[in-house]
């Protein structure tokens, strides 16, 4: 912990910019996905591989970069990662065809994946314990804010330039700046290396992660557990798990021989670290709920689709504030209190979405509370818990935590989407049970003419002849209505039914997020005495 104050300030600043740039990229592309697909003339399911490959690259690079940064130095690996990310960004922007574009995205991910890990391991290796929380909170805040704001920033750049290439070209000068400043301003920090690099473990781990992440990204459909049995899911998950088991025994044997395993097997025998990994998985699942906020604002709150992304701003700012609060809490009162605080506040925030929100101001308040709760967990608490009492392998410990969080963020959206799909599948039932009373209420407010009342009677006879009505059938009837006031009343009634279905689906999503937040709180309570006992030894 020998760095000068100036060097520490420079290090945290450079890492914060790097983390923001890398985290921004996966969100920023979503705004231009349709445009990119059209430019390469590919269908949407193929175009999604631009995001899938980036996610796979991140997952593979994180544990490898964590180990390499421990071994060869955080400064060297930061410069390599930034350079690789900048090169990948340039290649993506210059892609002459879709295959080249996918390869370039993978290169970009291999560079972006380790930046946050290197930054956090640098902080816990160089700063005194009482200052680590604030620094980690800042890095976590940048990570969270960038991920949330990515789609909005992507839309702004696309509107200003008219070209998706600029989404990636802007990374190049930032990367060049970070490489130059990294060379001149960062001090080298690394752990002692007990033996040669574990290449066999690296290859096995990469293949296992690739199989598991590929299988997870293919999970779709209303029934999460049923989709696990799909032929493009379970074989890859099974193969990945089997390879991980083989890897664990191989790494244990290598560690006994005095080698330097890529997997932190000794840490995985410690209850404190295992519970920290569980918290990482739960935090990833909780963070994934935020992906659905723009859709909620559009489908439930009635906000226009082009403005829905902007309503993420309160949550993004709150997450940044929460990350700072989490860092201060860790420095003043320790990581467990921050975990408990996060679980309670996030549970309240998520609970308010289905149970309280009727107006936009309520939506903003719920977003702020949920954002603060999530933000507290983003940077400091889990990173401190993962590296406590470690003299070496801090990057490896943090990388495993980051990987397990990524897995949580990959699994949870499929489960959440299932709730939303089930909600919308209730539309025919809602039409059958509630539509007539909703329509009657809207008609009474419309003050219809006699002609419109007669036309309404004709529509009523169409209802009488059908046991069930879908939204599509109802919209077909709406198109044929002649009277504008009646048409508006029926259309409002159809929209109310759709909103009720959406509300049902999102209620399931947010109540699930509440359960996850409570699980974080309970895990923190379980961890507290175990950690205290560990610190006494």
E-strand count: 0
The radius of gyration computed from the alpha-carbon positions, rounded to a whole number of angstroms, is 26 Å
Unreliable runs, pLDDT <50, ≥5 residues? none
**What percentage of amino acids are in beta strands?**
under 5%
Through-space gap between termini: 23 Å
Mean pLDDT, to the nearest integer, reads 84
Secondary structural class:
mainly alpha
Helix and strand pattern: HHHHHHHHHHHHHHHHHHHHHHHHH
Q: Describe the biggest sheet?
A: none
Number of helices in the DSSP assignment? 25
Bulk shape:
globular
Report helical residue fraction.
Answer: over 70%
Structure, briefly:
This protein has 537 residues and is mostly helical. It has 25 helices and no strands. It starts with a helix and ends with a helix.
Describe the structure.
It is a single chain. The protein has 537 residues and is mainly α. Helix content is 80%, strand content 0%. The chain contains 25 helices and no strands. It is globular. The two termini are 23 Å apart. The relative contact order is 0.11. The model has no long low-confidence stretch (mean pLDDT 84).
């Amino acid at each position: 912990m020998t760095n000068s104050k100036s060097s520490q300030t420079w290090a945290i600043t450079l890492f914060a910019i790097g983390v923001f740039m890398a985290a921004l990229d996966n969100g920023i592309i979503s705004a231009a996905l349709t445009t990119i697909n059209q430019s390469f003339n590919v269908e949407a399911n193929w175009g999604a591989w631009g995001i899938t490959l980036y996610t796979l690259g991140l997952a593979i690079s994180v544990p490898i970069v964590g180990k390499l940064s421990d071994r060869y130095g955080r400064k060297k690996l930061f410069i390599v990662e930034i350079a690789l990310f900048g090169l990948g960004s340039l290649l993506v922007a210059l892609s002459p065809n879709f295959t080249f574009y996918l390869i370039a995205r993978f290169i970009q991910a291999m560079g972006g994946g380790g930046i946050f890990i290197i930054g956090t391991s640098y902080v816990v290796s160089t700063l005194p314990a009482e200052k680590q929380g604030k620094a980690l909170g800042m890095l976590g805040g940048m990570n969270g804010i960038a991920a949330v704001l990515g789609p909005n920033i992507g839309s702004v750049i696309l509107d200003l330039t008219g070209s998706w290439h600029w989404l990636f070209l802007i990374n190049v000068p930032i990367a060049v700046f970070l490489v130059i400043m990294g060379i001149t301003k960062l001090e080298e920090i690394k752990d002692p290396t007990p033996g040669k690099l574990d290449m066999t473990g690296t290859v096995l781990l990469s293949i296992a992660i690739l199989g598991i992440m590929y299988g997870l990204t293919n999970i779709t459909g209303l029934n999460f557990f049923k989709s696990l049995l799909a032929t493009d899911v379970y074989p890859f998950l099974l193969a990945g798990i089997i390879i991980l088991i083989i890897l664990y025994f191989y790494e244990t044997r290598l560690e006994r021989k005095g080698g330097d395993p890529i997997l932190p097997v000794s840490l995985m025998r410690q209850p404190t670290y295992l519970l920290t990994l569980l918290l990482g998985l739960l935090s990833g699942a909780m963070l994934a709920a935020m992906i659905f906020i723009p859709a909620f604002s559009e489908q439930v709150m009635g906000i226009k689709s082009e403005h829905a992304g902007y309503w993420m701003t309160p949550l993004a700012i709150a997450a940044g504030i929460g990350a700072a609060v989490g860092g201060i809490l860790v420095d003043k009162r320790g990581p467990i209190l921050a975990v408990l605080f996060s679980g309670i506040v996030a549970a309240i925030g998520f609970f308010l979405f289905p149970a309280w929100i009727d107006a936009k101001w309520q939506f903003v308040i719920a977003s702020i509370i949920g954002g603060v709760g999530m933000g507290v967990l983003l940077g400091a608490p889990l990173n401190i818990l993962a590296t406590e009492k470690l003299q070496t392998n801090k990057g490896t410990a943090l990388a495993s935590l980051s990987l397990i969080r990524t897995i949580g963020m990959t699994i949870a959206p499929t489960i959440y989407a299932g709730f939303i799909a089930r909600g919308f599948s209730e539309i025919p039932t809602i039409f059958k049970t509630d539509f007539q009373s909703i329509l009657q209420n809207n008609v009474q407010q419309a003050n219809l003419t006699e002609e419109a009342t007669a036309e309404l009677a004709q529509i009523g006879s169409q209802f009488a002849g059908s046991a069930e009505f879908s939204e599509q059938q109802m919209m077909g009837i709406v198109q044929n209505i002649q009277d504008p006031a009646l048409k508006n009343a029926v259309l409002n009634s159809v929209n109310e039914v759709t909103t009720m279905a959406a509300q049902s689906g999102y209620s399931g999503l947010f109540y699930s997020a509440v359960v996850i937040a409570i699980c974080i709180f309970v895990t923190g309570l379980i961890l507290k005495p175990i950690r205290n006992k560990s610190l006494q030894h």
